[in-house]
Amino acid sequence: MKLYLMLLSSLLLTTATHAEPIKSPKGPQLLPAFSTASSLKQNFSCYMGPFASYDSWLAMMSKKPKFNAAMFGQRFSRADVERRQQTLDCRVFAYESDGVLVEGVMVRPKNTAADAKLPVVIYNRGGNAKGGTLVYGAIQHNVMPLAELGYIVIASQYRGAKAFPTLVTGDMQLDQFGGNDVNDIKNLLPIINGMPEADSERIAMKGFSRGGMMSYLAARNMPKLKALIVEAGVADLEASLVVRPAMENIFTRFIPNYATEKSAQLQARSVLQWLDKLPPKLPILLLHGDKDERVEVAQSQNLAKALAEKDHPHKLVVYPGANHGMHPNRAEADAETAAWLKQYL
To answer: How many Å apart are CA 142 and CA 121, to the nearest integer?
Structure first.
C-alpha cells in the first residue's frame, strides 16, 4: 500500500502540479461565449491539442521523465476519459476579475433539454500560483466527476496562475493566498448568471486543501450558497504552521505584509477566527483523512467541534489511513460529496 501511495503521489505531481502551460503554434480554436457576462473574454475547448483523444494524451504524458504508465491507466481509464469527452462540454476561459485577467474552467453535461436549468458547483482548487493548477489531468480527476452528477461545474485558477494558452499572463506575484484573489471566486457569479442553462439560485461550493480556506472566505459574501464541501481544508493557519513549518515559505512568498503582520494575516485567513461570518444555515460537509501529511486532520476536527458548539449544520467524515487526496478512500469521499449535493442542492 505504501508503494501504491508513493506512485500515486508521483502521478499527481506529474499531471497536476508541475505541468508547463500548453503551447499551440496556431493557438486554440475560440468558441462562442457560453455566458453573456461582459467579464468573459475568451473560451475554447479543453479537448484541444494533445487532449483531443486518450491516445494523444497518453503519448504526451509518456514523454515525461517520471511518467508511470500503469498508474496513469489506473487513475485515468480509457473508458472514463472517452465517456467524458462524449458526454461533457469542457471549456477553458479567461475572465476579468478586479481588472485582472484570470483563467478558469467550466464543465457541463452535453445534450440537456433546451429548457433545463442545472444547479452549479463552484470548485476551488488547492495549491498556489506555482503548482496545483487545474491542468487537464486535474480537470479529469477533480472537476468532471462532479459534472457527471448533472451539475455545471466552474472553477478559477486564481489570479497569477496559468495552465492553458489563454490571454492570461501568468504572474505568481498576483497570488495572495486568500487575499484579493478570493474575489476571483466571487467574480465567477456574473458568468454563472449569464449562462442560460444555469440555475443561479442553486449554487454549491467545494474546496480542496487551500481551496477549503478560499471557500470559507468567499462564502462570507455568498448568503444564497446552498451547500459547502471541504476536503482536507485548513481552518487555522497558525496551528497548521506548528505541524508543517515548511508552509512558512509559502506564506512568506504569497501573503502580503506577512513579515510585519504575520499573526493578523494568518487569522484573517482562518475560519475558526470568524466562524460567525459564515451564512448561519449553510450546511458544511468536512472530509479528511487521518493520515493526511499536508493538512493535519485536527484542522477539520477542531472546526467541526466549533460548528457543533454554534449548532451550525455540518457533518464530519474522517477516513482512517487516508492521505491528503483521500486515498485509499477516494470513492467513499466522492459518494459523500454526491449525497451532500443531492440533499442540499
So the answer is: 12
